[in-house]
Design brief:
single chain; mainly beta; Elongation Factor Tu (Ef-tu), domain 3; 1 helix; globular
Length: 113
Amino acid sequence: MIGKDLEKNVLYVGQGYHNEHLYADSLDGSEINFIAPIADRGTDFRCTAKFRYRQKDTGVHVFLKNDEVRVEFDQPVRAITPGQEVVFYDGAVCLGSATIDHAYQKARVLQYV
């Protein structure tokens, strides 16, 4: 048990803008708000997403379950930040958004301070 508790309190300090610990490959979100009809897309679908204003679109696979969403990225994305929004697109059409709850790298929660 102690090992698991210690694992939760790990602090990584790294240098550089492109440090590997800043990159996530998936996220969990809540407070989903779709503004475009998605009923025909089902509970999992592909689209693009942005995590920052003016950011290049990132290919993602979206998995909906109740009021939560799991988003897996085609390529790792830098500095996915809990509390911010992920915005979903189909081309130029905004589908909606969700609040980022957790970011993951290889199934491990990324904790930013």
